[in-house]
Amino acid sequence: MEIENPNLSVDPQRQEEEQQPNPKKLKMSTTTSDDDENYDNGPAADDGEALPKKPRYKRRKIAIFFAYCGVGYQGMQKNPGAKTIEGDLEEALYHSGAVPEQQRGLPKRFDFARSARTDKGVSAVGQVVSGRFYVDPPGFIERLNSNLSPQIRVFGFKRVTGAFNAKKFCDKRRYVYLLPVFALDPSCHRDRESVLSSVGSENELVKCLECSERGRKVFGVMGKQNFHSKSDFEAVSVGSSISSNTSALLELEIEEKIGNRTSEDGKGNVDDADDNKLTTETVKELDDGATQSDKIEEDKLDGGNVNGNAKPEKRSEFSFVKQERERFNRILKLYEGTHNFHNFTTRTKAEDPSAKRYIISFNANTTVNVEGIEFVKCEVIGQSFMLHQIRKMIGLAVAIMRNISPESLIETAFEQNVNINVPMAPEVGLYLDECFFSSYNQKWKDSHEELSMKAYAEEAEDFKMKYIYAHIASTEHKDGVVALWLHSLNYRNYSDLRGLNNGQSSDAKCDDEIVDNGQNTDVKHDEAVDMA
């Protein structure tokens, strides 16, 4: 009996198809939207033909370059309940179609990151943020700017690698503080004690009448007050939630009147029941005008007498020439290198490793005239900066230039176990100039665009002059922000500016006031620090 071969009855073509493996199912790209196809399956028309399908675009990882004037904003970083640059930018991205509805207000979902976090009132010319956005169709920058206020301007964007992060990939940042040249003049805008002590001397100082009127309208004090009791300080601090642009009190008259009231009562403290009454009466006196004794004292400051005979106002001959420029740059250079900047920030302890920062360079070689005011550009480059760090660095440098403090106080402030109350310059003059991505550009130079402000230099310069510089100059003309702050640079507000004596803590009260009469000579101080 013959046995049939089963292979003879099998179709060869069918056998070959069964032996072929199933093709792999392609995965969706994580960089695209939920719909990878270019068109949707749209509804059919009445005649049965399909309507044109809506296009779908891919997300792109990009870096956005933009500038802003910080006036009216509570800083860059988004903060619930506060008006911030980041909050307005996120809303503009949504309304421009760069962020879908389901991810609105959720920056982590589109990988959002910023290169620098500027403080309240601080501006920026070269700020950079990164994320995954829908940039198509063409016209993304125009759509974005149309949804932003004029004081925020987007210059452009560049494609970056998928792992790019604007914060982590930023090697260094450059900030500029636009400081009026008159701030470096030791005889300009001096404090009340210095002016009173100079009356009748060869180097007599002149009271600033304009600053005096501005100061009377400001209710609040600057600096660290160690000579008041707690209740006295609370009475002075009531209602002091004004803008920091005008928070400097020229004459500190409220404190003096509180001191007079308490001495008359023979008590060192003010009862809680009398706090509000005392504060109200003090403010009323300031609003209604000075008392007769104050008027006599003011006449002395004005260079006249009670009969109204006044001497002509002296004009300062200070200029930012070679000698002054070299001295100021020598002071700023002391900040360069790696130091512990715990005295130049808030809420960071000296033992915290984050208090150590590296300053690459700090100089002031350029001056610019804006609306009749001459400014010096203080440029600082560092890897990163802490809260208020640059403004405090400028504040102490100005105090040294005005002969209020010794240069050695900067080195002292770097000591880990020394706490010093460092003055802080107003925020209005500070702006972020540029963020640098040197390492990233070097690594990806063959496949990606260079990340820099070169392509937007002209547009950025126009924005800077029109919005940032104009705002700084007009604010100084109108409110005298820096001028009022200069009047607060005295030993009553900042007793630590003297330098620390042997065995003296930084919080100790200084009884003897050293007065400089405006000479351009360095004041000698005791510089030894008790390290025990």
Automatic annotation (TrEMBL):
It catalyses: a uridine in mRNA = a pseudouridine in mRNA; a uridine in tRNA = a pseudouridine in tRNA. GO terms for biological process: mRNA processing; mRNA pseudouridine synthesis; tRNA pseudouridine synthesis. It comes from the Eukaryota. The active site is at D119. One of its GO terms (cellular component) is nucleus. Keywords: Isomerase, mRNA processing, Nucleus, tRNA processing. InterPro entries: PsdUridine_synth_cat_dom_sf (IPR020103), PsdUridine_synth_TruA (IPR001406), PsdUridine_synth_TruA_a/b_dom (IPR020097), PsdUridine_synth_TruA_C (IPR020095), PUS1/PUS2-like (IPR041708), TruA/RsuA/RluB/E/F_N (IPR020094). Residues 260-287 have a biased composition (Basic and acidic residues). Residues 1-53, 260-313 are annotated as: Disordered. Residues 1-12 have a biased composition (Polar residues). It is found in: Nucleus. GO terms for molecular function: pseudouridine synthase activity; RNA binding. Substrate binds at Y175. It holds the Pfam family PseudoU_synth_1. Residues 332-437 form the Pseudouridine synthase I TruA alpha/beta domain. Belongs to the tRNA pseudouridine synthase TruA family. PANTHER family: PSEUDOURIDYLATE SYNTHASE, PSEUDOURIDYLATE SYNTHASE 1 HOMOLOG. This is Pseudouridine synthase I TruA alpha/beta domain-containing protein. It comes from Fraxinus pennsylvanica.
